Amino acid sequence: MGQTVSEVARELLEESLEDLEDRELAEARLAKRRPALTSQQVRQELGLDN
User: Would you say residue 19 lies in a domain?
Assistant: First the structure.
């Protein structure tokens, strides 16, 4: 059985809102991004250079 126009429209709106939320989260993470670490810095932070 097919969907009504209202059901299809609701699904499309929900998907669009989810996409917008995902984009906002990604942009917020990028804005908070710390400078890249060198491999040596990562090894030190993980305690691998003993």
Answer: yes
Range of the domain at 11: 5-45
Residues in the chain: 50
Return the structure tokens found at 23.
């984009």
pLDDT for position 49: 79
The answer to whether residue 50 is domain-embedded is no
pTM, two decimal places: 0.56
Tokens matching residue 37: 């670490």
In this structure, is the dihedral angle defined by the CA atoms of residues 25, 27, 29 and 32, taken in order, positive or negative? Answer: negative
Considering the domain boundaries, does residue 9 fall inside one? yes
pLDDT digits (tens, 9 = 90+) for 14-46: 999 999 999 999 999 889 887 888 999 989 988
CA angle at residue 42 from 36 to 48, to 5 degrees? 175
